[in-house]
Design a protein that fits this description.
The protein has 189 residues and is mainly alpha-helical. Helices cover 58% and strands 7% of the residues.
């Protein structure tokens, strides 16, 4: 399967070339692109609300233990997290909401304050694509089994070129080590 970051780059470059040909000076065209951006965000909101209802309907109370790695560059010990699949999924969904709202806020500043119009087109496509590529959507909307890459806890998406910190560890050895060194892990209910 093609890396989502590569497809994002291809889409961005293609849309940037396309946006050079779009007459954003025309108020009708500009309003059309704004409507596309709003429609894209409404679809994402709808998907996230549906995910929330699916997660709350399933209410999977299976215990999930994993070791959250220490933040990069810190001397903290990795934390043992004990939670449920339900709580974990809701936590992941909160993160998706936060990311989406941050993107809308940044786009509002760029468009309304700085008068940039080209990013409206790109931001109508990339977040929508990202929403449908997320693990929560794959598991709860598309019904894919939570095995393999979709087994919880999920690795955080890497930064540029996939360079990110290591994700949470759910193997027995890591959990046992964290339990032995436990000086106050986190328990979510």
């Amino acid at each position: 399967m093609v890396n989502p970051q590569i497809t994002n780059l291809v889409i961005i470059l293609g849309v940037m070339q396309l946006s050079k040909k779009i007459p954003f000076d025309d108020p009708q065209v500009l309003n059309g692109v704004r409507a596309l951006y709003v429609a894209s965000n409404l679809i994402i909101i709808g998907v996230y609300l549906y995910l929330q209802s699916k997660i709350n309907t399933k209410k999977d109370l299976t215990t999930l233990k994993y070791v959250e790695p220490a933040p990069m560059g810190s001397s903290e010990e990795p934390k043992l997290i004990t939670t449920t699949v339900h709580s974990y999924d809701l936590q992941q969904l909160r993160g998706l909401w936060k990311t989406q709202l941050m993107g809308v806020g940044m786009m509002a500043v760029m468009h309304l304050y700085f008068k940039y119009t080209n990013p409206l087109l790109i931001q109508s496509i990339i977040p929508l694509k990202g929403a449908f590529e997320g693990n929560l959507v794959k598991v709860h909307l598309f019904g894919q089994p939570a095995t393999g890459d979709l087994k919880r806890p999920w690795k955080a998406a890497g930064g540029m070129m996939g360079l990110g910190g290591e994700g949470p560890k759910a193997d027995r050895k890591s959990i046992e080590t964290a339990e032995k060194n436990r000086s106050g892990g986190v328990k979510d209910d």
